[in-house]
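Why show two proteins at once? Because comparison is the fastest way to build intuition. When a single record is shown, students tend to memorize it. When two are placed side by side, the eye starts asking what differs. So, the first record is below.
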Amino acid sequence: MEPFDTTVKATCTPNDTIEEAFPDTGIHGSPLGSRIREERQRLGVSQAILAQRLGVHRKTQVNYELGQRKPDTDYLEALAREGVDVGYVLTGESRREVEQVYSNILDSLMVALDLYKGFEQEWQTVYEIVRQNWRASGNGDSLPIAGDAAVRALLAKSPRVLGGPEELCELLERIEFVAEAAGLVLSPRQKASAVFSLFQEKRRSGATSVDFATVKQALDRRV
């Protein structure tokens, strides 16, 4: 009989499970085997239950976790169907961790762009468009054009993202017209501050243009 089986018999009592007979690192532990064990424990199932779901013998599952046997493609595909992060098992890089990092970055961008309150539906729309186009493109790496357009449309609503020269020139012309009519002399800084303020108000309100009364109010606050 193999030494491996002799050890099992020597260390197990009738009430022990096969996994309780070994320390977490296994006899010939390996990073890959340890990650298989870690993912199984994350799912909250025993070696016996997971082995049954995957269609392998419990001892085969034990050997995978101990690093005594390398998993084949069929086994890895079966793991993925059970919700195991196979990318993490193979590389040590957790998909969940990567997704969390990107989620944190997105949250920061939403706050920085002032697009986090009242824009939930817009973000959901962008998400659905990008996901559908990504699937339709065969899960390619490039961002689908339709998704890119949806992102640009959402960014256009941010009061923090400046518009094009025409939009800014229009605001500046209105500011200079109102200032001249009121006999005000504005410094370049005051003009720039007023343009930025009006631009933000325009984006937040969704208005297509800014009336002269709004311009006058903005100048009164800065003069």
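Second record. Ask yourself what differs from the first in the token line.
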Amino acid sequence: MKDNYPKYHPQFFTATILEWKPLLQQDAYKKIIIDSLQFLSINKRMRLFAFVIMSNHIHLIWQSLNNFTPTDIQHSLLSYTAHQIQLKLQKESPSFLNSFKVKTKDRAYQFWEREALGIDLYTHDVFIQKLNYLHYNPVKAGLCIHPEEYLYSSYRFYETGVDVFNILSNYAG
């Protein structure tokens, strides 16, 4: 019998684009992130409680499900999105693609910084603190005045219950 009870705590996850380049400024690149999160959510690899996609980094609160570890989910998200970003840049912006060229044995291009941050959220208070931090990131960056104005965030989901991207689970159940 498959154990469906989560084995891992929710996690605050941050991944940054290499050298903080504004790769995710265009919505088409944000959509690549959304597509990957949809796949992971629909296929019950993880539960996504919150997200924000900024121009050069992402913040997520997620929880791995079934037999998937947080490392599995992270690897799946980052490798899929890197591959899709590379394909899109090859077609649409080869010169920008060249700014991601690296001299390593395992890849020609690198889009994500190597050290993504994952913090287990053991308490409700810490969960809420990270949720608020994530939701107010676009306001702090000057992208909007109110967090509900920023499309690529889960803030409106918690205000209205409407999940525009069909990827979210309410942390309250």
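One difference worth noting in the second protein: The chain has a mean pLDDT of 94.
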